[in-house]
Amino acid sequence: MSPERLSQPGAEYLAQRHVQVYLEDALAQLLENKDEVEPQGSTAKFFAQYFASVSKGTHVLFREFGFVQITPHNRASFLKIFWRCFRTIAKNGDLLSMKEYHCLLQILCPDFPEDLTQKAARIVLMDDAMDCLMSFCDFLYAFQIQFYYSEFLDTASALYQDLLTGKNANTVIVPTSRSATSRQRQPPSDSSSQDGVDAPQFCQGLESLCERYRHSCPPVPLIGEILSSAPRVSFYGFLMALAKHPGINQSIGALPDRAHLLLDELLDKELDRLIAQLSTSSITHSPTSSCALISRDIARVASPRKCLATRRRPDLESDGSTEETDSSES
Amino acid sequence: MAPERLHADITMAEKRRAMAGSPVCRAAPGPVNETEFLAQSGAKDMLREAVLKLLEARPEEPTAFLADYFEKLWTGSGTAAGEKGVHLLAQQRLNRALWYLKLSHHSQRTAFNNNLNMAYECLSTGGRKKKTGLTGKNYSEVLSSICQEGELPEEISCELLRKIKCRDHEAVPFDIFRYGVLTCFVLLEFRSKADSLFSVLNKQGPADQRLGKAVLDTLEEALVTSDLFIPASYLEAGTKLGPDGLALAMDKAYLGNNSDATISRNQFLKDACALFLYKVKPVG
């Protein structure tokens, strides 16, 4: 029990958990689907289904971008859906371009803005050679940071630019101390372009930024941890570190960690089973001719399995399209 | 139910996709139609009720709570006219009552009292919309379900039920119902508090028996000797259990200590619960 939640004023509790967004959306959806909802009785059913799908995270499927990005929960849900639907791409090891990833995103959310995809690709490619191909994992984790912390990153970028050009209000140049002035002057002139900005200073700025962005910024201790590893940091270096940090991924809670990204026990078990069946049934074919006594037994056992295997094979091939129903299942 | 819901999910999503493809020619129904529809469906009142319940309970995950709430509302309305067996209906009523009781924590008195009322109403309604009152049998069932869900060990819950249960055929008045249910919830919380107390003792190696005993003795002194009808005794109990009072007792026990005997978590919890049970007044 968190006591904070219980002592909060009602309106604050509702606002913090974005309850109103979902209540309004529930009503809007009810009106949109009103032909299918009978006036009596099944309104409760409709709401039950709506809120169940919100809590499962399937409610953002095929919704407009405005809704998809409106709450942190919606963003996390969208990330999860994206991962689940297109995980097979990573399994096959295909590399795709930014445009192709954008098309995938548009399948799930028709009006998904291109600049977000572009920004995510920039993180992967470190703002360089934008027509390069990317692996699904790299793109996914970069996209997660960009999409989930979109506003925070925009402000952070502005802060970084300010630091680069030396416009920071925190920088105090002490005119009497010669060493200080020379140190202050040096970075912008030569090392800034390749080395970025002073990491502790950037960190300080981000911390005060996080205070203002209470709900949609990465955990402050983790930012500190990332920025304390090197004296200087470039913006894309920082974003890359954010994207790769397992703790940040955990705090968002939408995706599994990198090592488990491709693991899906149910699907894998199914695949293993199918492969095992295919191989046993193909092996059992050869001894049938040589040893008739055993073969009859085996053939009897193997035939229904083989039948199952061939029946299932089309599923295997069109894996990508069946994923969609899969995602709304759990 | 699950496949049906999945289907609904997909059809809803399909429809959204179709609509998103052609945002222009979306048929916009007249506003009169919509207000009429809302009034007919009772959606507004339904949502208002739900938000009130939500604010009472303040769950960690509001959407899951709302999903559950509407689910119960829907199945509840469906089975009122349903043709299910009497036994199944009784089971459903029990579940529903338990659900009410768990909607809010017992320390939030107004909300909890409201929910107690709802649960009592729900349990007292007989099969054919007839008010039969709450029987001792149903009452015991509620209590033992609460204990079971709280993972209370058999021996403790038996002892508790022996004290607060009524005979199967007896009609249970609301006051008794309230007392019994509240006792169960408070005992569960007491036990979890005792559990965390033991975890502290157990932090550095197995808990020392004497220290454990000192804590239990202090607890006993505070609980058992206090008189519930004198308000000041609550304060006295509080001071006895305050950090300094407890620390003094533990320190004394620690100084005179040179044995290696330990106390197990189960034993500690059992003793603590026994103290609580001693204070529970038997009903009837």
Task: Describe, in plain words, how this protein is organized in 3D.
- The complex is a heterodimer of chains A (330) and B (284).
- Chain A has 330 residues and is mainly α.
- Chain A is 70% helix and 2% strand.
- In chain A, the strands form 2 sheets. Chain A has a two-stranded antiparallel ribbon with strand order 1-2.
- The relative contact order of chain A is 0.08.
- Helix content of chain B is 73%, strand content 0%.
- Chain B has helices at residues 2-21, 31-41, 43-57, 62-80, 86-102, 109-124, 136-149, 154-164, 174-201, 209-224, 231-241, 243-255, 265-279.
- The two termini of chain B are 44 Å apart.
- At the A-B interface, helix 2, helix 3 and helix 4 of A face helix 1, helix 2, helix 3 and helix 4 of B.
Record the SSE blueprint.
The complex is a heterodimer of chains A (330) and B (284).
Chain A: H1 3-7, H2 10-16, H3 19-32, H4 42-56, H5 65-68, H6 72-92, E1 95-96, H7 98-108, H8 114-124, E2 134-135, H9 136-148, H10 150-164, H11 178-189, H12 192-195, E3 197-198, H13 199-212, H14 220-227, E4 232-233, H15 235-244, H16 246-252, H17 265-290, H18 292-317, H19 319-327
Antiparallel strand pairs in A: 1-2, 3-4
Helix pairs in contact in A: 6-9, 6-19, 7-8, 8-9, 9-15, 10-13, 13-14, 17-18
Chain B: H1 2-21, H2 31-41, H3 43-57, H4 62-80, H5 86-102, H6 109-124, H7 136-149, H8 154-164, H9 174-201, H10 209-224, H11 231-241, H12 243-255, H13 265-279
Helix pairs in contact in B: 5-6, 7-9, 8-13, 9-13, 10-11, 10-12, 10-13
List keywords for this structure.
heterodimer, A: 330 residues, mainly alpha, 4 domains, two-stranded antiparallel ribbon, 19 helices, 70% helix, disordered C terminus, B: 284 residues, 73% helix, elongated, CSTPP1 (chain A), phosphoprotein (chain A), Centriolar satellite-associated tubulin polyglutamylase complex regulator 1 (chain A)
